[in-house]
Every structure is written in C-alpha cells, then in structure tokens.
Write a structure and sequence with these properties.
mainly alpha; 72% helix; flat
Amino acid sequence: MLNVQKVKNIARLSVFALALLALVLPAIMPVFATTPVPSVDYGLTEVAGVDGAGLTKADLRATIGKLLGVALGFLGIIAVIIVLIGGFKYMTAGGAEEKVGDAKKWIISGIIGLAIILSAYAITSFALTSFTGALVPMK
C-alpha cells in the first residue's frame, strides 16, 4: 500500500517532469515548416488599411508606456475596489470590534496599494519621459 506522502511525491515528480518536458521538447524537435505559407488576404486590408491599423509604425517606447499605463490603471481600479470593500465591511460591522478591525485592515491595505500604484506610475512616467528625451537624436 502506498501512503499519502509517497503519492504526493510521485505527483510532484510527474508534474515537474511534464513541465520540464514542455520546456525542453520544443527546443529539440525539428522544425517542419520549411515551405512558405501562402499570402492570403482575409479582408483585413479593407478593415485596417494597407498600414495595418498603424501598429507597424508605432514607437516601441510609446507602446510600452501605453501598456504600462493600462496595467497600472487596472491595478488602481482593483485598489479602489479593495477600499470600497473595506468601507462596506466597516458600515455593516454593526460595532463588532473584530469586524471593524478587519474592515480597517482592508481600507489600509487598499490605501497602501493606491500609494504604491501611484508611485509606480510616477516612476514609470519619469523614466519613460527621460528615456524618450535622452534617445532623441541631436541635430
């Protein structure tokens, strides 16, 4: 009979082996795509135009800045939701000290998160403007 610890070790070993196989297998497998794929227009030229919606001419630094702004915006929304959950818990605590303490922890965690997100946004904005200003060729 197998005990629980042996089953757990076997499961861990098999998951590790599968993960390792998934990482190594693409590197050692030969590539069979030697023939070029025919160019097929699926009607995207009519929708996006010849330039491909302008994505090919976008500056990489600007694209990264936009992506970071969107990600930090989502994180800010999550932090505000955490503060709102804490406020809701505080309002529905009914004076119970344990529930009030839990609600205060939610609110403080949300405020700390907002401070971290705002400082990350400020640092990112400063770094991106510095890099874009520093990398502009001089005339």
